[in-house]
Amino acid sequence: MKNRYFVAIVLSLVAVSTANAQVKRGVMTLTGAEMH
Amino acid sequence: MARGAIARLYDVDDDTVVFKKFNIKNKYDHATVAFRAKKGKLIDLQKMHESIWATRLSGGTRSGVICLEVNVVGEVAQTGNETILHIGGTDQQFVLVDDVQAKPNPVQAGTLKALLRAVARGEKILSVTGYVDGWVGRWPGVLSRPADKQPRLMVTRFLAVKKKKEDQ
Questions:
Q1: Given an 8 Å threshold on Cβ–Cβ distance, is B67 in contact with A29?
Q2: pTM of this structure
Q3: Residue B70 and residue B33 in one domain
């Protein structure tokens, strides 16, 4: 039973993660003393 | 800070995160943080926004973001007056535009027209590079508004993607 809940939670997290993902790569340009 | 917040994202390959500082001036300098998704993954810009917000950046430092350039792959479709790029396998979309505020000064607009010509020729799956609107301003004010769910993307480069071929 516990395993079933665990699998359901993992599948939900994977689904949410994939549904909102967008970007393959990027470059953020920053300025100022706190940039890193 | 921003580099660490980006590297901590699950879908970011932290081995590819590169911080490069440009020693143009002594104090308030410019730098870039380059990042790439893990193989087979994509990065969520809303999570990136939340991750940087969670670093609790203080104000009054004149630090901030100048622009965010991203590469996305998806199918382009015309919806009314808008050109929409749908990210494959997700419900995420970008509105492709010719200009945004969040860009470095030398960038010229005009690539969107060439993209639309390519789409008219039958190229539908495109790898598009451009600047995401809204990612410009001082910390922490620039983060006070949530990231757009349907961000506007100023197209600067694009490439037709053949079926089942990853753009790398």
A1: yes
A2: 0.81
A3: no
